[in-house]
Design goal:
By secondary structure, the chain is mainly alpha-helical. It folds into two domains: 2-71, Winged helix-like DNA-binding domain superfamily/Winged helix DNA-binding domain (Arc Repressor Mutant, subunit A), CATH 1.10.10.10; 76-225, Four Helix Bundle (Hemerythrin (Met), subunit A). Helices cover 71% and strands 4% of the residues. It has a three-stranded antiparallel β-sheet with strand order 1-3-2. α1 packs across α3 (46-58), α4 runs parallel beside α9 (181-197) and α4 (76-100) runs antiparallel to α10. Residues 1-7 have low confidence and may be disordered.
Length: 231
Amino acid sequence: MKNLKKNGNTWIQAYDTVLNLILTSAIKPGEWVTEVGLSKRLGIGRTPIREALHKLEQEGLIVTENRRKRVYLLTISEMEEIFDIKICLESQACSWAAARGTQTDKKALKNILEDLRGLLAARPSDAEGEDVWFKKWTAKDDALHQVIFNMAGNKRAANFINNLNKQWHRLRVGIMAMEGRIDKSLNEHELFVDAIIGGNTEVAGQAMRDHLENLKRMLIQLLKMFNYPAA
């Protein structure tokens, strides 16, 4: 990323904006994008847009075909590969967190879990309120996992997982819309958080593995429902 700083922070603004459009599906999977089109749409110069697209291509969210760029469309087999890696790394990170976390870390983890419980209890029924609520939920969920990564003490593993997550996180809205998924997700989070707080490395790792296996099954179901390519 250091070589992209020659234009100050403009490319970072472009990157964050385009990334958000991709993750929220405002730019849909498979959709073609151009420097000119994005520059006009966002009011940002073509050079920082070009650099942002280059970074997104490095992360696997943009692909180039015949000199044209489009948002990457995940296949079912690639989703399986992503989660095979996530399951290995994140279950181990959970075990490390249980072994290495401080009491301060554990208190922070417990507080975030309480916030998630409070959010679930206050979930609105109207569509507009649901959108705002979901952003709060995902932000808290992300914060909880980040605390676990910090407790695990392995920055390379955390960075690798975060890059993998960018490739599928746009599907989170669809997953959370499935009946009962939020409640089940919270129950699964309680299991591995309690194990981490209790210092039980084996239970923590297995609880995270079970959580991600369930999420993987739901995501593949969602991809099949919307006729994503198999391979």
